[in-house]
Amino acid sequence: MSIRQKVLFRIKSLELDKVEAPDKVSTYFGQNTFSLETMQKHISKDTFEAFKTWMSAGKIISLVQADEIADAIKNWATDLGATYYTHWFQPMTGLTAEKHDSFISIIGPGKVIEKFSGNKLIQGEPDASSFPSGGIRATFEARGYTAWDPSSPAFIIESALGKTLCIPTIFISYHGEALDKKLPLLRSDEALNKSALELLKLFGHQQIKKVFSTCGAEQEYFLIDKNYYNLRQDLIMTGRTLIGAPSPKGQQLEDQYFGTIKERVVNFMFEVAQEAYKLGIPVITRHNEVAPHQYEFAPMFEESNIAADHNQLLMELMKKVALKHNLVCLLHEKPFAGINGSGKHLNWSLADDQGNNLLNPGQTPEDNLQFLAVLAAVLRAVYSHGDLLRASVALAGNEHRLGANEAPPAIISVFLGEQLTNILDMIEKGVKSKVSKADIMDFGIARLPKFSKDSTDRNRTSPFAFTGAKFEFRAVGSSQNISTSITVINTIIAESLDYVAEQIKGAVSAGKDFNAGVLQVISKIVKETKYIRFEGNNYSEEWVKEAKKRGLANVAATYESLEALNKKENVALFEKYKVFSKEELAARYHIWIHMYNLILEIEANTLNEMVNASVVPAGYKYEKLLASTLDELVKLKKSAGLKINEAVLNDKKEHLCEVVSKIYYVRKNSLAMVKLLDRAKQVGSEKRAQIYFEELKPLMEHIRRHVDSLESVVPDDTWDLPKYREMLFIN
């Protein structure tokens, strides 16, 4: 019996303590979060008003007020059992980082008190030397700073033996460059705010003081039994299976999607939701996804910077809680070949401080016109900067997913739905020379009914789809930090909102009626951006051919898509809106190329180890069994006159030759892979990434095909690696 088979008999669902009457979510939602409501209870009225003014108008609080807030946070946290605090930040690895410090302060021999000052709240100093900087600073320059992000509330993380106060922060270098994901996001929201306010003023909205992006990230993931996970070096090292023959049953029956959730899984989901609710994460949806043992959580919309924090926290919670249920949560974009991978559909919209959604058309012609102006800005942004959108989702894991008949292709396009498409097509034909409030357009726009939430069918194949008062960016990878994609979307749309506003001003100054001028600008943009709109099946070969005719890029390689960060016009764009400096963009390019190379190298070395330590030895055992069986039969035929049809012996010979050949090609290509890795180390990072994409990845797939073929014939009691049919169909 193989190790794998022994594990199979040990797998069982954990016995959990039953909760007879769980509390209503409303009674504990956000209990581990220092929200505005909680803050107001713990500080003076003047300090609270000063804090709100800081949030709304940017007028920074005094150090005395910071001390008061810090003391309030400390008292709140220690009352709940926290003994340590940390500045929680998101370095350019895409993960989160933290350095814990105790609240205690020595006041005499053997005496301490809990103390926390405004200075410690506002700024921390972690060792930055081992975080990626992309050349912003030398490796030996260790100093880095965390700075409090007051727009995202502090929270408490619970463990079995204690609690830690986490303070969301940005992370900057000694000279102030952004070393994290969060600071550029905050900068982009500020740029978006200024641009949107300028456009809204043209439509008479002087009372609006703030516009911000809102997001909700649908999080897909897989679950696997921990016993199986521990037997798969590839899952442990890389997050995905580098080898593995397909299961006879995969997702072809489509019986998993929205199916009944297994009790073991739903117990996991209950605990994740409970922990999320304590942190104020508004998870509202859970369900089975398409692939076996693939699932999804989806939250309500929030301000983008908070949504980014919450998505990082949710991923950490999912991994942490899974282990308690003897499961492992897989967030890789393609953990299992041959079935769907996991994405993170990023729902994005615009809101103002009056509670309005700027992507909601409204009921009046004027509102419709404003909506169409914002819509035109979005279309122009995607049309003009599709390369940046593609770069924002560029990583090794996503290369397996984009375009794989389960996710949008690497071609960036927009889906609007039949209703909006018809409206834009009519706008393209022209407008009346005289515009009235009652009849703005001569093709029925004034009679447009109020858009419902589902005014269009969903197009799950489109990378950037309008899905009712929001756009859904479906190309984001499951493991990704959403901050980068939000930062790019905010920035390119800020630039387009400015363009639309300037064009409207120009039309009005040229003598056009305001409404007619707006319509003229929209019509121009609709014509210019027509090629970016596609309403059909993005998975089809016909679309790939059509997109090429339209001149739309189809960039499959991570290294190639990241080159968008180096383009002069893109550098100028980010510098204009003070989101990234040239140096910060260059740093991210080098970091992400370097990380891509490291991931591929880890995968290749892991594959080589698995081949030599697990696959080939199992193959040799079977090869020996076949050879000895054939040898015995031949001897018996000669010595005992055993009557064996020659065709039987030929079949056994042929099968033995097939197995011997499979092992040979596995070994041969593995040796070639090692040589390729050695050769790639002699060139620079960019060229190495190209070699890995064009040569290493196909070679790894070639090895996999031979290994998977071998797995299909080697006896179960010889093959130690857990198989797809087992990992994907646990109870």
Quaternary state of this entry equals single chain
- Shape from CA axes? globular
Number of separate helices: 23
The number of strands is: 17
User: Could you estimate the helical fraction of the residues in percent?
Assistant: 40-55%
Q: What value does the Rg take, in angstroms?
A: 29 Å
Give the terminus-to-terminus CA distance.
21 Å
Q: Round the mean pLDDT to the nearest integer and report it.
A: 88
SS class: alpha+beta
Q: Can you summarize the main beta sheet?
A: 9 strands, mixed
Uncertain spans: 431-455
> Beta-strand percentage?
5-15%
Overview of the structural elements:
The protein has 731 residues and is an alpha+beta fold. It contains 23 helices and 17 strands. It has helices at 3-10, 25-28, 36-42, 45-57, 63-79, 118-122, 182-202, 226-229, 233-238, 263-278, 304-324, 365-392, 396-399, 418-429, 483-509, 514-528, 541-550, 558-561, 568-576, 582-639, 646-680, 685-711, 724-727; strands at residues 82-88, 100-102, 104-108, 111-114, 123-124, 144-148, 155-159, 162-173, 211-225, 283-288, 294-299, 302-303, 327-330, 344-352, 414-415, 464-466, 471-473. Strands 9, 10, 11, 12, 13, 14, 15, 16 and 17 form a nine-stranded mixed sheet that branches. Strand 3 and strand 4 (111-114) form a beta hairpin. Helix 15 crosses helix 16 (514-528), helix 20 packs parallel to helix 22 (685-711) and helix 21 (646-680) runs antiparallel to helix 22. Mean pLDDT is 88; it is low at 431-455.
